[in-house]
Amino acid sequence: MKVCFSLACLLFLTTLQAQTKPTDLDKSPMDMSYWPTNYPLLKMSGKAGASPVARVLYGRPLKNGRNIFGSILKYNELWRLGANEATEIEFFSNVKIAGKNVAKGRYTLYCIPAEEKWTIILNKDNYSWGGYTYDSKKDVLRVDIDVEKNADNVEAFTIYFEDARNSANLIFLWDDLKASLPIIALPK
After folding, report:
1. What is residue 18's predicted lDDT score, i.e. its pLDDT?
2. pTM of the predicted structure, to 2 decimals
3. Structurally, how many domains does the chain consist of?
C-alpha cells in the first residue's frame, strides 16, 4: 500500500512538472478571410444565406523595417504566401480562375514573385509546412497576375477578398505592393 501511495505521489508531481506554460505570442499570427466578407458574422446574425464561397487561412509575417521583395523574398523563387504553414484556400463551391474551372475543395496557395508579375499556384498537397515539400506535379492551376505599387506601406502581410455578387478579387498586400487574383463563383 505504501508503494502504491508513493508511486501515486510521484506520478502527481511528475504531472505538475510536465505542464507547460502558454506559448509566447507568435510574431506571424494566423489569420482568415472569407468570401463573402465577414461570413461568420453574417452567419451568426442570420443574414448569411447559403454557405460561403471561399476562405483563406494564412500566417501574417511583419515587415519589421526589412526590404521584402527582391531581398527577404527572392524574385523567381517559390514563396508560401505568408509565414509558417503554407497558405490554404478552400472553395465551398466550384469557381473559375483565369478561365479555368477549379473544383470545390481545399488547396495550398503558393506564389513565385517577380518584379512585374506574380505566378499564383493552387496545389492539392494540403499538408505542407512552408514550401519545403512543394511538388509541382500536384499543381491544379498556375496563373500570372499583375503587381502594382500600393499607396500605403503595409506592415503585416494581408490577404482578403474584395467581393461582388458572383465574383471576387483575392487581394495580397505587403510592403508597398498589391496583387489581385480574380475569382468567379460558378452556379451550383
Report:
1. 47
2. 0.80
3. 1
